[in-house]
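Service request form, structural biology core

Requester: graduate student, group of Dr. S.
Request type: structure prediction, single chain
Budget code: on file
Notes: please return the result as structure tokens.

Sequence provided:
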Amino acid sequence: MSEACDQNCNSCGVECSDRKEDTDKHDFTERLHDMSSIKKVIGVVSGKGGVGKSMVTSMLAVTMNRLGYHSAILDADITGPSIPKSFGIKTKATGTEFGIFPVKSKTGIDIMSVNLMLENDTDPVVWRGPIIAGTVKQFWSEVIWANVDYLFIDMPPGTGDVPLTVFQSIAVDGIVIVTSPQELVSMVVTKAIKMAEMMNIPIIGIIENMSYFKCPDNDKSYPIFGESHVEEIASEHQLEVLAKLPINPQISASCDKGLIELYTTTDFDKVGQILQNMIQS
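Core staff response, request fulfilled:
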């Protein structure tokens, strides 16, 4: 194959169908660091921002850590990293000639994020898509993930460069899709589901965040963001609803204070059991 395609079928002697077959044969897989060991890789995705994807990622890691497994988080949200703050991590990642070492949280969860490499946490990452995607691949191939049972990848929202890079270059065992009750989000999350299906990535299930608010005064539940449609979406795609999380100011406060590991809830018990079964089977 010679020159770039000009979409007019006159820039080269290769038929478009042959070009596509050649592209389909190309292996984009990125090799894991030789000193790394990861049993299961779980992607956490959302169709749009603002649905609490990073919180869910954090709690999944915390849940499996409490069950006795070694959890880790690869923060692939390069331009909006929030994982280190949720865990109260202020130290920076270090490295040697062998590779980069993730930072351990208070309870031993390994974390790698671009914020752990910036001089100041508030420094913006003003990079174009290919550089951002390349950084995510480096977090996979150049970071030493030692004896990790579950690596959770916190991906940026949408179906752009980074999710595509992760799905193509990293051996993802399954994804958890995070949504919220708004009608608009229900439409957008379907795009994320269809992308995963197109890339042949197994979908573990859907978690709906901000599903309702339980009033402490009367113990009644109120659908602040509208009635839930998550069961309809799940049924349409033969998926499981893993959890319907309430609006809880306590978890927001825990994230803001860097104390996510101290927050306790039974909301993630079901997905924790499913993930546990994946590693035991």
